[in-house]
User: What shape does this take?
Amino acid sequence: MTKRLDLALLPSEAEGMGSDAFLVIDVLRATTTITMLFERGLSDLLVVDSVEAGRERAHSESRILLGEVGGLPPEGFDFGNSPAEIATLELRGKKAALFTTNGTRALLGAAGKGEVAAAALANASAAARWAARFEQVVLVCAGNSGGKRFALEDFAAATRLVQLIARESPGLELGDAAGIAAEITGYEDWIATGLPQRTDRSARLVAGAHHARHLKTLGLDADIAFAAREDTSSMVPRVVTYGADWALLEAVPL
Assistant: This one.
């Protein structure tokens, strides 16, 4: 059962937080995509710190190559960073490599600090059950601009995870940012809904975030809608081994 829960609004904040486990959140779109890759049967996923490393490792290890720069797949990549697209694929038994602007870097930054897993609204309940295995947990928001700027959509997913983890672990002690996430109300008053079929606060936050507006200009509305849906997967992708510029993820349903 979790006794202490902290929230890092940027990856740099997590550097000074000792913990048993870290849940990395990049809801638009890396951790949503990663969750869906395993939901579709992927065997393992290599996340890397550069486009060049992705190309090299994918070629040498016969991996599907996925990712984005500026929201779109670089030249020669098999797929982008699109959870809506991934949800249509059959990936059973296959392996992949992934690079993204924010999410993969946040995962690599957390690797080695404790147990590390990927979380999003897509696997929120499963991620909360995973977190309950550890006494101390940190939620890490991947942010935007390479992890240098606050991302509203990641905070939205984090607020939901705080609620779910608190249900799994009564009497949970919350750090300051996690406490704000647990208590803040009134999202509807300052974030216009972009998803009429959903009225919950987290979905409104995701749809109204600056990064969501950028993705809309690229015609990626389907990814925004997909990322705002809760519990489309029971998979919890976790880091099983890592190096200086890579980490290998596997997943099991929870």
